[in-house]
Amino acid sequence: MASTPNPPKSILKKQPPTPDAPSALELTGLTRAQAAQLLTLSKTELKPPIPIETFELLSAAFPSSQPPSQSDISLLLSHLPNFSPSEYLDLIDERNCLNTCGYALCSKPRRNFTGKVKIRRSGVAKTEDLNKWCSDECALKGMYIHVQLEHPSYEWAGEKGEMKVKIRLREDKEPGVKEVKKAVEGLSLDGADDERDKKGDEAHEKKKQAGKLAVERNGMGVDKVEVTIGEKEITQPPTAPTFTSAQGGESDAHLMVEGYKIGSKGKKPNNTGGEGEDDDDDDFIPSIRIESLNYGRP
Amino acid sequence: MSDDFGSGNIHDKEVSRLWRAWRTIHEMVADRGYELAEEEIKMPLDEFKRKFTNGDGSPNRSIMSFSARPSASMIKKFTPPPTASNPDPAPECGTIWVEFCPEKTSIGISVMKKFVEHCANNSYKAGILVTAVALSAQARKVMTVTSQYTLIECFLEEDLLVNITHHELVPTHILLSREEKMALLKRYRLKETQLPRILQKDPIARYLGLKRGQVVKIVRISETAGRYASYRLCV
Ligand SMILES: [Zn+2]
User: Fold this and answer.
1) Does A62 touch chain B (CB under 8 A)?
2) Rounded CA gap, A168 and A145, in Å?
3) Using CB atoms and an 8 Å cut-off, which of residues 80-139 of chain B contact chain A?
4) CATH 3.40.1340.10 for domain B12-49+64-160
5) pTM of whole model > 0.80?
6) What's residue A263's pLDDT?
7) Which H/E stretch holds residue B18?
8) Which tens digit of pLDDT belongs to each residue from A75-90?
9) Complex prediction ipTM
10) Where is the RTR1-type domain (chain A) (predicted)?
């Protein structure tokens, strides 16, 4: 360093020369990567808390009309991207405190079920959760926003180059998960039907390529092997197999497995002289043993 | 403390719970050094019922609020020592306002703001809101933001059913004045961070309304040492 005339001698390894003046980065004690991370975080995650006034604005007597006016919708959409998921839940809470539906674009009073749980068509639900909304429709719409805040997709917003969470409102008659699933199951992918659209064409193309791949794997496009299946003619009733003398005869019958003799010619059954064999009787592993034996095929 | 289950009124249980909370909050305010009449603190259940219930026996929380002025000794304790620049310092305590919130479902920003405004308009130095249900997260935020001007505290009725300081295992906690704290640090040659600590959210700290930096003296009865004092800094 040029600024200090006699720097104390370091016992550490030689450091690469440092620039004369410490940059702002070094002063904050952050590495470049950390700083970059912080920068992206500041654009996305680290948002200042939502002021209480905003909560009041979006909870008390909001929206001003039912159905909500266009200005109310755009007001909500301008505020929502700044909300963290938990702050959004707070907003629902705050609206519930005023006895209105948790969905920010609904001015109806919330439900007022009693008891701990309620049996609904979809199963058992806590009344506490049900009472946050005026209807199931609003619950869907409200949580639709929550999901988008929890798993944000960012878009570049405007002149300042800030990243903004993209929020979409749920349409009135939008299909739910179940309907979408059903629709997907109904789709046919075999490409056989004539009114094939673009998607069908794609599937067809994929199938063709898969076929090519299979040929390539099986070996250079070999022609198919002709296989003819014929019937075996039976002239006499079946008899139990007998051993020929080459296979050892009757005396070795107990050593035979399905017509083959274990440990025939040149190999002693106890395997002491097997060349290159490392298995001894202690670690007898059947599969290895069988593999290493001569099956005595004729 | 007898819960009259036999009398058949559905509000009896609630009223008796409320009466216990009332009693604890009065004891608490008195323990902090405010002036309260003995008969107000030790109001019997019958009288409480007569005073604070409607015709049908349901409690009327909105008329249960009260205020209390600090006693002479409390003012003395909370007055900072005079300095050259400020020869006649004002005490850091004032009248306290206690309110029972009639809201029974949920408490949001609006309720909290109204309470804070009421305290500010009547220039109360401290305010305690006793609620039957928990505050919403944002209402809690309103409470902490405004607490710089008026000290706002919230207690659940549920938490006031018994006075925890009356339990035999809870030692006596005594708040030290600023001078006493300086004397303590000087005597033991300590920095204040070297003292043991007590959290501000500790039930006893909440009971006494401790602020960050204040020191409590904790007096325990010891079988071998008779009385044994220790000190804790509120953080
Ligand atoms: Zn609704």
Assistant:
1) no
2) 7
3) 105-111, 136-139
4) yes
5) no
6) 67
7) helix B12-31
8) 888 888 888 899 999 9
9) 0.78
10) 78-157
